[in-house]
Amino acid sequence: MHRWSRLSRGMTLGVKGVVINPAGEILLLRHSYVPGWHLPGGGVEVGETAGHALARELAEEAALTLTGPPRLHGLLLNLNLARRDHVAVFVIEHFTQGRPDVPNREIREIGFFAPQALPEDTTGPTRRRIAEVLGAAPPAAHW
After folding, report:
1. Can you tell me the distance from the alpha carbon of 114 to that of 126, in angstroms, rounded to the nearest whole number?
2. Tens digit of pLDDT for each residue in 52-71?
C-alpha cells in the first residue's frame, strides 16, 4: 500500500533562481522550446538536493558559479504542469559568471535586466517572483 501511494502521489520538484547582480539587475533567459523570458532553473534529479540542482542549472544555462549560499525565497505549488509539481525559488546575490555558450540547443539568449525594464515578453510568473523578491508584492503560495 505504501509503495502504491508513493507511485501515485509522488511530488516533482524544480528550482528557479532570482539572480541579482551588483547593479540590481535580474538574470533572465529565453529557451528554445517555450516562449518568453524566464528565470534560470530546472528539475531536481533523483538523489540530488535542491541546492545542487540550482548550482548545476545555473552553471549549465548561464556559466554562473555560486560563491555564497543562495537564500530560499519560497516553495511554490505549480498547478500549470501537474497538481503535484513544486518549485523552490532561491535568491542568488553572490556569484561569478564565465562566458555562456549561447545560443545553444536549449538557451537562445541570456541577459541581465533592470527590474523596471524587463523584456516585454517576460512571463507572468517570472515577473511575480521578481516583484516578491524585491519587496513589491507579498510572497505567493502558487507559481
Report:
1. 14
2. 999 999 999 999 999 999 99
pLDDT at res. 79? 87
Q: From 34, 17, 35, select the one nearest 26 (Cα to Cα).
A: 17
Determine how many CB atoms are found less than 10 A away from the CB of residue 88.
Answer: 21
Distances from the Cα of 70 to the Cα of 60, 109, 127, angstroms: 17, 23, 20
Distance from CA of residue 73 to its chain's centroid?
11
Q: What Rg value do the Cα atoms of the chain yield, rounded?
A: 15
**Distance, CA of 79 to CA of 142 (rounded, Å):** 8
End-to-end CA distance of the chain: 31
Pairwise CA distance, residues 36 & 105, whole Å: 16
Tell me the pTM: 0.91
